[in-house]
Design goal:
single chain, alpha/beta, Rossmann fold, 5 helices, NreC/VraR/RcsB-like_REC, DNA-binding, DNA binding, DNA-binding transcriptional activator DevR/DosR
Length: about 140
Amino acid sequence: MNTSQPIAALRIFLVEDAATVRRKIALLFGTIAGALIVGEAEDGVTALAAIRERRADVAVVDLRLATGSGVDLIAALTQTMPCVVTIALTNHSGPAFRAACKTAGAHYFFDKTAEFDAACRTIENLALTRSPRVADQ
């Protein structure tokens, strides 16, 4: 009798104000084994509700959003859904932005242009090292 539980895909939610950039990130992250894009939003309010509803494991957040701030969203996720891994992925990568994200509780911070490959490797590692759980039916 096999008692091992299947490992569900790493559920990723993207928060990015530019639709074309969101689509490109979704396509690239969607090729990572064990990763599944479960939703997208362009603003923090919509994202916060949808991340909870779609039971995301990871939120990939830009700092500039259609409304609200990515830093504020990261802080809200840290307070209300601490199990969600938060990844800041932005072109605003100066020291002040990094510090603000760290203070807000971001687990990871990547520059979209210079560190996108590192962000992909982080997603791969998160997918590989997940704890087993029963897949959603």
